[in-house]
Design goal:
It contains three helices and four strands; from the N terminus they run βαββααβ. It has 99 residues and is an alpha+beta fold.
């Protein structure tokens, strides 16, 4: 299992367009092989921050996602609508006993 957490800082004037593009991208991504979950969240302290949390079966399943047509289309909207490059973290479940 692999997770991706991507944080965007969106220009106020581009927020509606980025969210609309994200909705289309999310719908298409959820149909991809290996996608378990793909959700968008809004910061409660900073309206410019959108956080995407993805869950994938394997790293191999995640690979084609970035090259998909819907991600490329979303990427074009994001490139024009953010104030800084997206912050993307790929994480895996901890392999330590946290009980």
């Amino acid at each position: 299992m692999i997770y991706v957490v991507a944080t965007l800082t969106v220009k106020p004037e581009a927020r509606a367009e980025v969210i609309a593009a994200a909705k289309a991208c999310i719908a298409a991504t959820r149909k991809e092989t290996g996608c378990i979950a793909y959700d968008m969240h809004e910061s409660v302290t900073d309206p410019a921050k959108l956080v995407f949390v993805e869950q994938w079966e394997t790293a191999e399943a995640l690979g084609p996602h970035g090259k998909s047509d819907h991600m490329r289309a979303f990427g074009r909207v994001v490139a024009a609508g953010v104030t800084a490059p997206p912050r993307i973290e790929v994480i895996t479940p901890a392999k330590v006993d946290v009980r």
